[in-house]
């Protein structure tokens, strides 16, 4: 017998089980061997890129999947020895190879067919998935970087939990019904309360830093997380699909779980790098 989705549209027991399992994997890797985080992020980005590229190809948008997958790994892994310079170099090389790949794929003796559209969307995917994810791995290269990742992940979790709980219990006023009907202003308020409290505590207790940094981080995590979720919802609406994949029960695909994490990784890295 299948479990009916909750008011927020999820299979709640399955979603909780998957979330706990993923959280345990992250915690174990960061506590035992922090650099294993590169492998976890790299694997997740490969699956997410495959999901997105598959959905795009189903809509006849021919993104060059092989160089996008390999380039995504280069973007992630070059951050280990070379930091932001390695990430930027990997991204530039990926874009260049994808441009040439798509050019040769259609044949040099044929009239161009959607070349500009396909290449533009390919660059978007490379920036959206592996480039933003690389900032989650760059965090762990800092001294005490595992603590940065904990602060990042706990802040996003607090935002998600607060938004979900407030949305289910009090949600009456849709925020952007044309893009995401289940998002409400009450849910956004819940996200703000939980994320600010959670980030304030983690920044103070884990990083031993100024609590005002935690307040700032909590606010920006809610803003970027919400916008990240809306961006993926808009992409899915453009493609006429509900989920990017089906690999995570209660969540959809890997990319459906990463939509708020990807931009949040960048802003966490930015805030902590600038202020710490």
Automatic annotation (TrEMBL):
<feature type="transmembrane region" description="Helical">
    <location>
        <begin position="86"/>
        <end position="104"/>
    </location>
</feature>
<keyword id="KW-0594">Phospholipid biosynthesis</keyword>
<keyword id="KW-0443">Lipid metabolism</keyword>
<feature type="transmembrane region" description="Helical">
    <location>
        <begin position="212"/>
        <end position="231"/>
    </location>
</feature>
<keyword id="KW-1003">Cell membrane</keyword>
<feature type="transmembrane region" description="Helical">
    <location>
        <begin position="20"/>
        <end position="50"/>
    </location>
</feature>
<keyword id="KW-1208">Phospholipid metabolism</keyword>
<dbReference type="InterPro" id="IPR000374">
    <property type="entry name" value="PC_trans"/>
</dbReference>
<dbReference type="GO" id="GO:0004605">
    <property type="term" value="F:phosphatidate cytidylyltransferase activity"/>
</dbReference>
<comment type="pathway">
    <text>Phospholipid metabolism; CDP-diacylglycerol biosynthesis; CDP-diacylglycerol from sn-glycerol 3-phosphate: step 3/3.</text>
</comment>
<feature type="transmembrane region" description="Helical">
    <location>
        <begin position="148"/>
        <end position="167"/>
    </location>
</feature>
<dbReference type="Pfam" id="PF01148">
    <property type="entry name" value="CTP_transf_1"/>
</dbReference>
<protein>
    <recommendedName>
        <fullName>Phosphatidate cytidylyltransferase</fullName>
        <ecNumber>2.7.7.41</ecNumber>
    </recommendedName>
</protein>
<keyword id="KW-0812">Transmembrane</keyword>
<comment type="pathway">
    <text>Lipid metabolism.</text>
</comment>
<keyword id="KW-0444">Lipid biosynthesis</keyword>
<feature type="transmembrane region" description="Helical">
    <location>
        <begin position="188"/>
        <end position="206"/>
    </location>
</feature>
<keyword id="KW-0808">Transferase</keyword>
<feature type="transmembrane region" description="Helical">
    <location>
        <begin position="62"/>
        <end position="80"/>
    </location>
</feature>
<keyword id="KW-0548">Nucleotidyltransferase</keyword>
<comment type="similarity">
    <text>Belongs to the CDS family.</text>
</comment>
<keyword id="KW-1133">Transmembrane helix</keyword>
<keyword id="KW-0472">Membrane</keyword>
<feature type="transmembrane region" description="Helical">
    <location>
        <begin position="116"/>
        <end position="136"/>
    </location>
</feature>
